[in-house]
């Protein structure tokens, strides 16, 4: 499906400002946690020697860690088989 209203140049910045004014918990979480302290641990556990250069590059480890935290906090799942009953 084609995106009818693509984001403009400043839309993301304005959206973040609006969320900050509403005291969004994600903005508060980002301001209180130094995510870089987890980088050495994540690099150690995730980095495996690459056998070949085929395939897409890996996602940022810190971003994926944040996604796991958010899934836990908001009881989210990435399973396509989850349905609401």
Kindly describe this structure.
The chain is mainly alpha-helical and 85 residues long. The protein contains 4 helices and no strands. It has helices spanning 11-21, 25-32, 39-46, 61-73. The radius of gyration is 17 Å and the shape is extended. It starts with 10 loop residues before the first helix and ends in a 12-residue tail after the last helix.
Short structural summary:
With 85 residues, the chain is mainly alpha-helical. It is 47% helix and 0% strand.
Parts with pLDDT < 50 across at least 5 consecutive residues: none
Q: What's the overall average pLDDT, rounded?
A: 79
- Give the N-to-C terminal Cα separation: 27 Å
* Alpha carbon gyration radius: 17 Å
Residue share in helix: 40-55%
Tag the structure with descriptive keywords.
single chain, 85 residues, mainly alpha
Task: List the SSEs and their pairings.
Blueprint: H1 11-21, H2 25-32, H3 39-46, H4 61-73
């Amino acid at each position: 499906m084609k995106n009818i209203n693509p984001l403009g140049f400043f839309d993301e910045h304005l959206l973040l400002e609006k969320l900050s004014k509403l005291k969004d918990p994600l903005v508060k979480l980002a301001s209180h946690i130094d995510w870089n302290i987890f980088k050495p641990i994540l690099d150690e556990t995730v980095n495996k020697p690459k056998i070949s250069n085929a395939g897409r590059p890996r996602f940022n480890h810190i971003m994926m860690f944040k996604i796991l935290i958010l899934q836990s906090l908001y009881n989210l799942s990435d399973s396509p088989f989850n349905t609401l009953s």
